[in-house]
Amino acid sequence: MLLTENKWNPNPTYMSSQVKIEETIRSTLVDWLIQIHYNFKLLPETLFLTVNVIDRYFSLTQITKREVQLVGISALLIVTKYEEIYPPILKDFIYITENEYTAEEILDMEKKILFSLDFDINLCSSFRFLERFNKLGKICSVTFYLAQYMLELGLLDSKMSQFDQSLQAVAAIYMAKKYLNLHNGSQDSQFSLSDYGVSWSSDQVKSCAKCFNQLATLIYKSKLQNIVKKFSNSQYFKVSKIVN
């Protein structure tokens, strides 16, 4: 996984090449998809893979404002077929866009995305690495969900793709332990890179963790609150409130 993970990383600066849309529009799309993903009770990997597909397609194609949501919902349609045992049906996707797009438009965009990506939608996401590192480091549930919260915050910023998926996962755990230590007023959650079997340096982990920390701070000043609401639920141990 570690040897091939950057194969599916989009160019982290691709948004600067987009003429008709800005980073805020992409962030709004991802925030909306986080809500849809949660409401449909889809697998975590589905969300991460969907955003990866969107970013890779955006990095290859000029997008209009009207196409943004269409690309998002079509990417979600593709990934649910790939990841979910019981994926939502096409009518569900039309409904959640409030009939903004027809079935033909969604299916046509689905084909465009797949052809652009050469039907290659494989990815070992940061969440998959988090699951692996969870077993290696034997982290507690609160740390796990707080790290997942960090990773999902990272989905809101296209520039986070400058960091490989495994690095993001390790940095999210590092940041989660930092927040828990501050929250508990103790040093119970120790962090050691050797627990996770990766070659990332301490400086690399801290550089990525710094970005997560910035996102966790800025999210409370943003109108994009779906991720905060999601992780304030008891099923996630209300971890977003630890950061606040």
How does CATH name the architecture of the largest domain?
Orthogonal Bundle
Major sheet size, sense and barrel closure: none
> Gap between N and C termini, in Å?
34 Å
Unreliable residue stretches? none
Helical amount: 55-70%
Determine the CATH topology of the largest domain.
Answer: Cyclin A, domain 1
* CATH 4th-level superfamily of the largest domain: Cyclin-like
Q: Quickly give the structural class.
A: mainly alpha
Number of strands: 0
Mean pLDDT: 93
Integer-rounded radius of gyration: 18 Å
CATH class of the largest domain: Mainly Alpha
Order of helices and strands: HHHHHHHHHHH
Q: What shape does the CA trace take? A: globular
Strand content: under 5%
Task: Summarize the model shown.
With 244 residues, this protein is mainly α.
Fold and architecture overview:
- There is one protein chain.
- The protein contains eleven helices and no strands.
- By secondary structure, the chain is mainly α.
- It folds into two domains: 5-116, Cyclin-like (Cyclin A, domain 1), CATH 1.10.472; 126-243, Orthogonal Bundle (Cyclin A, domain 1).
- Helix 8 (165-184) packs across helix 9.
- It is globular.
